[in-house]
Amino acid sequence: MQKQNIFHTAVLAALLSFSLLLASPNTGRAASCSTSFVTDNWSNASIWSCGHVPTSSDDAQLFFSLL
Q1: In 6-40, which positions are buried (b, 16+ CB within 10 angstroms) versus exposed (e)?
Q2: CA distance between the termini of the chain
Q3: Diameter of the chain by CA atoms?
Q4: Fewer CB atoms inside 10 A, N or C side of the chain?
């Protein structure tokens, strides 16, 4: 009986850990973010192609032209 309880506890812990991993907002993948609004507020998520302000784990690209 005690071995069965230990097994159930281990399975429950594994399922909980897996569920938390799936529910995490950032699974470790870096986003590729770009903008051409170099004079706008870079803290504005709406100007970035990835839909959020880039973080240190994202690749950020600025596109502009020199006229």
Answers
A1: eeeeeeeeeeeeeeeeeeeeeeeeebebebeeeee
A2: 78
A3: 78
A4: C
Q: What is the rounded distance in angstroms from the CA atom of residue 32 to the CA atom of residue 51?
A: 10
Which pLDDT band holds residue 6 (cuts at 50, 70, 90)?
A: confident
Q: How many residues does the chain have?
A: 67
Q: What's the CA gap between 31 and 28, in Å, rounded?
A: 9
Give the residue extent of every domain in the chain: 2-62
The contacts of residue 45 (CB under 8 Å, 6+ apart) are 51, 52, 53
Query: Residue 11 has which token pair?
Result: 């399975």
State pLDDT tens for residues 44-67.
Answer: 888 899 989 998 888 988 887 776
